[in-house]
Amino acid sequence: MIHAAITAVGHYLPEDRLTNADLEKLVDTSDEWIQSRTGIKERRILRDPTKATSYMATKACEMILERRQINPEEIDTILVGTVTPDMLFPSTACLVQANLGASNAWGFDISAACSGFLFALTTGAKFIESGHSRKVLVIGADKMSSIMDYTDRTTCIIFGDGAGAVLLEPDTDGFGVIDSIEHVDGSYGHILCMKGGGSLHPPSIATVEARMHYLHQDGKSVFKSAVKGMADVAERVMIKNGLTGSDIRFLVPHQANLRIVGATASRLGISMDKVMMNIEYYGNTTAGTLPLCLADWEEQLRKGDNLILAAFGGGFTWGASYVKWAYDGIAGPG
Ligand code: UT7
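That is the input. Now the predicted structure with oxa(dethia)-CoA docked in place:
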């Protein structure tokens, strides 16, 4: 049986930091409130106005190609999870394809908010499992600062910019994406959304004045649904595959809020030392969070490690994947 193994990880984080102290100057908030309610100390911001999501996504992929010494022409498929594409079209995948010089690749964007990388991973895995593709770049990238209202203290303290990517290749020894479960529930769409800029509310002076081109969320409702949704779906993937907390090397959760992740891990019987957490430094980078965790922990990962990836986001969208890690430490040439 063919599985889609993750065979390399890449990432890109802008250098500029937006700290809690910086936010105290913009809105009525405090470092103490932000840290105790979310676990966040700082986020990265892509300040260069000439650069956007495709730039970060390209950098993450270039790291993969460089480390593995892969020629861009070998890439078959490029999938980008994002809700902050450079523009509505062409897709970010097309821009990344051109930037990389991946002349034999096709690809497209996947809009699933904070579950964007997870949904792209499942999609990419199917292209590998079916024999359609042999090298798939799966990217999670968001420039959240581009849709952030820096006068709204309930949202601007949470989000940051960043991108991560993985390479998927076929494996016949039982390593890779073993199983996954995904969900959407569009009846909750209004709870976390950006209303302006689409075909329902095209940009106009009125939509800009109504601040419709910013992310809006009912934080409390998202919080409750995220705790239940992420824990339920991760538990189902684990039970389906005969896994208990002690079989899991790492839980790789969407970095939404330290308290959401803590509640999820506790439901799954996974102690916090086995949970990848970097929200402290990057905030919530939406589709970027899962591959940015993999990038930060790659050196510690060993062949055969069982990982549970779980995410929850706007849509609502949520899901979990069981991944058996395919290599030791930082991926090298080959
Ligand atoms: O990835 C999916 C996307 N989103 C999420 O995962 C977000 C999920 N939600 C959350 O993480 C949390 O709900 C928040 C961090 C957004 C808010 O935390 P909370 O503990 O749910 O706070 P709250 O909304 O219940 O607000 C409590 C109080 C309110 O004041 P009053 O009404 O009690 O006087 C807020 O006005 O805290 C106030 N508040 C703040 N105070 C200082 C809200 N934001 C801030 C702030 N600084 N930044």
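DSSP finds ten helices and 13 strands in the chain.
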